[in-house]
Amino acid sequence: MEKLKILIPTDFSVQAEYAYLMVKKLANKIPVEVHFAHVLSVPDTITLKADGTFDTCGEVDIQYLQQQKEMADRQLQSLVSIDGPQIHTHLLLGKITDAILDFSLRQHIGLIVIGTKGAWGIKEKLSGSEAEAIATRSTVPVLSLMCDRSDLEINNILLVHDFNSQRTMDVSLVQKLLQAFNSTLHLLQFVSENDDKAKSAIIEKMNQWAKNHQIPAFECHVLNDVNIEQGVVHFNQMHPIDVVTIGIHEQHGIFKQHAAEALIHHLYKPIISLRLH
Known about the structure:
Layout: E1 4-9, H1 14-27, E2 32-40, E3 47-48, E4 54-55, H2 62-83, E5 88-93, H3 96-106, E6 111-115, H4 128-137, E7 142-145, E8 156-160, H5 172-181, E9 184-191, H6 196-212, E10 218-224, H7 228-238, E11 243-248, H8 257-266, E12 271-275
Parallel strand pairs: 1-2, 1-6, 2-5, 6-7, 8-9, 8-11, 9-10, 11-12
Antiparallel strand pairs: 3-4, 7-12
């Protein structure tokens, strides 16, 4: 199996450690190549020269910036010292979201894993708006989690989608997880009315979708609820779900922005965001 290239944006906080613990869980079943990236948030006019010093127009304190770089270099090197040379580390310059997204595309990253602090934030540096922007703008799948899930058994994966929609998403990562962990995929759609005929039509589409994507073990669920995020919480209370998968795009996904934040804030489950097309 080809290695899955995983990027962990890090500010060296405990949340980033949670992300790495999750990646280690995946590595037990899937060949992975792990990349840590730390971003020094600087204006676009600042570049790093070959000798490791900064080239700038003079709008920042170079001495302070050099100190920040040296500190980050030491922390990145400590990751290699602890976890071995198989860990790849990178120091990036620029705006956090742009730097992470640009790097993920240039390096052909297959998954970005972000440890959050309850509302799309990696400590202070990856603020709510920054981390949310990574998920909504990324064409690469993003897995977010806000606690240590090293004891997680990935037996059941939830995929929430509107199967009546023409929008599609690349579920190759989900397929890889299903195969590696021998998991069951739960297909879930919410409807506003309790119409048995409409529900039957949706379940038929779910079955066809699962057949088209060669899903070996799956269950179909069509439910009524107040809204999507509360529906997922209620579904999780009734079923032993380990990972939640949602579709999202830049304007709004299957969840609107505030709904996605509410779900991540209240649901202590790893959440995978997939780009809707």
